[in-house]
């Protein structure tokens, strides 16, 4: 079992790597990403400090690649150009689950994007095609499903849904 899986209460099946070391997004991971397209992108800035920036236009390219449309992210793009290692977290606050993706990011100008990338983005975000400057494509090296310790204590998904929706609705 991976060490980080022990630290966050995961089971080995929640960390996905395919044959020959290739990472695969499980169906559960894909569903969470598709349902919660705002990913928190972690990079490192010039001073060596962590930088986290929300990106709300994520889409799945394939089992080993995710991407987002870059609308206005000069700091993130600058960090990726110099240090392409990234971590992205997608969080379902209602069911208290998350997907953590670690990978290598590359910025691709819209004019240089391949047809598949443009089509996938257009299918998910047709009203934003005209405003994106390009895409940040992330080749996945590791993907993990993270679940709340509440599940370890016996909480069910339905109990967490009810409790967390009540908190959100009270805002």
Instruction: Please provide the ordered H/E string of secondary-structure elements.
Output: HEHEEEEHEEHEHH
Query: How many DSSP H or I helices?
Result: 6
How much of the polypeptide forms β-strand, as a percent range? 35-45%
Overall pLDDT level:
88
Q: Count every beta strand, where a strand is a DSSP E run of 2 or more residues.
A: 8
In helices, the fraction of residues equals 25-40%
Largest sheet: 8 strands, antiparallel
Using the CA coordinates, give the radius of gyration.
17 Å
Distance between the termini: 39 Å
The stretches of 5 or more residues where confidence is low (pLDDT under 50) are 1-13
Overall SS class: alpha+beta
**General form:** globular
Would you write up a description of this structure?
The chain is an alpha+beta fold and 171 residues long. It has helices at 3-7, 27-35, 74-82, 115-124, 149-152, 157-169; strands spanning 15-16, 39-44, 50-55, 58-62, 65-70, 85-92, 97-109, 134-147. Strands 1, 2, 3, 4, 5, 6, 7 and 8 form an eight-stranded antiparallel sheet that branches. The longest helix is centred in the C-terminal third of the chain and has 13 residues, at 157-169. It is globular.
Write the layout of secondary structure elements.
Elements: H1 3-7, E1 15-16, H2 27-35, E2 39-44, E3 50-55, E4 58-62, E5 65-70, H3 74-82, E6 85-92, E7 97-109, H4 115-124, E8 134-147, H5 149-152, H6 157-169
Antiparallel strand pairs: 1-8, 2-3, 2-6, 4-5, 5-8, 6-7, 7-8
Could you list some keywords that capture this structure?
171 residues; alpha+beta; eight-stranded antiparallel beta sheet; 29% helix
């Amino acid at each position: 079992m991976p060490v980080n899986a022990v630290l966050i209460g995961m089971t080995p099946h929640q960390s996905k790597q395919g044959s020959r070391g290739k990472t695969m997004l499980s169906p559960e991971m894909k569903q969470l990403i598709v349902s919660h397209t705002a990913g928190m992108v972690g990079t490192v800035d010039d001073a060596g400090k962590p930088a986290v920036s929300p990106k709300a236009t994520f889409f799945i390219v394939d089992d080993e690649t995710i991407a987002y449309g870059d609308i206005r992210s000069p700091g993130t793009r600058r960090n990726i150009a110099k240090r392409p290692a990234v971590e992205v977290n997608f969080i379902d606050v209602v069911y208290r689950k998350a997907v953590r993706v670690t990978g290598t990011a590359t910025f691709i100008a819209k004019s240089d994007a391949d047809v598949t990338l443009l089509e996938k983005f257009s299918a998910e975000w047709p009203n934003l095609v005209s405003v994106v400057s390009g895409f940040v494509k992330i080749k996945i090296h590791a993907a993990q499903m993270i679940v709340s310790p509440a599940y370890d204590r016996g909480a069910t998904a339905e109990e967490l849904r009810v409790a967390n929706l009540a908190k959100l609705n009270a805002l």
